[in-house]
Give the backbone structure.
Amino acid sequence: MPALFLHGRLDSEIPLKVSSTLAALAPYGEFHVIERAGHMAHQEQPETVNALIRSLLARVAAGTALPA
């Protein structure tokens, strides 16, 4: 199963490197930076976060989220 790591570029609580490292370590990790968002990216940029989640779910439903 893919793992989606979303991180606000302006997050002052957790360094960006944490999410990028976790995504790199996860077998099917996917990392995205949410511009103009801090620690609460899902509240600050909900349209962007929702679009990324929907995109991943669509790929999972289509069977294209994981490498062949």
Observations:
- Residues 33 and 56 are 15 Å apart (CA to CA).
- Strands lie at 3-8, 29-34.
